[in-house]
Design brief:
Layout: E1 2-14, E2 17-19, E3 25-29, H1 30-36, E4 43-48, E5 54-62, E6 67-70, E7 82-92, H2 93-97, E8 102-106, E9 112-117
Length: 125
């Protein structure tokens, strides 16, 4: 049986721009994509920490520090909001039991400050 697991995550990035008239997607800086293991063009879920909105879109690689929601998603966030970006993957249950996602922790300027392998309860950053 296959199960859907968190593959990679950018934790609490700050939205730098919301561009309603762009075709669509979320633009993330290359360093955020690399640190989290999320690929350009990959489907992701975006969770807005400040207003609770959740949406699904795909990634575009952009300049360092960029977190820009494009197209209709721009109506659900504001520049300055903190977001969590999560990519999921399907894996067999045996592999999933030992799986540890890459979690990129970032500062208020969207600089990667730490990359974790997995998460544990009670970790607040």
């Amino acid at each position: 049986m296959f199960v859907k697991m968190c593959r990679g995550k950018v934790h609490r990035a700050t939205v730098t721009e919301a561009n309603l008239h762009y075709v669509g997607s979320i633009t993330l800086g290359k360093e955020l994509l690399e640190a989290s293991g999320i690929l350009p063009g990959e489907a992701v879920q975006v969770l807005d920490v400040d207003n609770g909105n959740r949406l699904e879109t795909y990634t575009i690689e952009g300049p360092r520090g960029t977190v820009c929601l494009n197209g209709p998603a721009a109506r659900l966030v504001q520049p300055g909001d903190r977001v969590v970006v999560i990519a999921y993957g399907w894996m067999e249950e045996g592999e999933a039991r030992g799986w540890r996602p890459r979690v990129a922790l970032v500062d208020s300027e969207n600089r990667v400050v730490e990359v974790l392998r997995g998460e544990e309860h009670g970790l607040c950053r």
